Amino acid sequence: MNDDKRSASLAGAGKLSGGDYTRVSISGAGKVTGDIKAEALRISGAGKVEGRAEAIQITVSGSGAFGGEVVADEMRVSGATRIDGMARVKELKCSGSYRVRESIVSEYVKVSGVLRAGGDVEADLLKTSGGFEIEGLLSADKIEIRPGGRCYAKEIGGAKIDVRRGGYRERGILLDGLVRMFSGKGTAELRSTVIEGDEIHLEDTIADVVRGTRVEIGPGCRIKTVEYSEELQIHPNAEVGKQQKV
Hints:
By secondary structure, the protein is mainly beta. It has one helix and 20 strands. It has one helix at about 175-180, and strands at about 10, 15-25, 30-45, 45-50, 55-60, 65, 70-75, 80-85, 85-95, 95-100, 105, 110, 115, 120-130, 130-145, 150-165, 190-200, 205-215, 220-235, 240-245. It is elongated. It starts with 7 loop residues before the first strand and ends with a strand.
């Protein structure tokens, strides 16, 4: 079977049976019934995959809904995506809305829109200048957060955690307002119960416990307890309830 026969395109309210394909493009209200495996899956309309989706590259610039697990080498989202299962994506870039019912496992995550996960988020490197809501653990070797809206993770762990003012506030009042609207109209700050890492720099962060080797608590922070093993710096415009060297 040649590539043309194994490719499919839906431009209206059509349906496509699951199976193996080279390329699948949905530009209307198309639906894939069952599991799908493809080299490239592109959704620019209101596409839906009722089962599991596996592809080398997935691009969503419209509205994409996935009824099962999503597995991809690369996934780019500039529209709105909802995944009712787990997301295993090596490289995830989101400038729109990305909602996952379960956990996200990745190597590289970049968020300039809004990300929501009902479970954990695990990555080698995570960079965000938008907003996010993670109900479980955010874990990465390196975490860079520039809050552009409400940012929340139940727990955060990493070798290097860097949270600084910035995000969309550096790009203008109008854009900042739009991002806050889609991220729940929250203040551009990070909230977490426990933040633990080797090197930690925090700004505009609210947490119960911050635990690390070298810790710097910057402006706008409200921390109940800080535990450190080597070095601690606290900005005059930060509030720390208890500090303890361990």
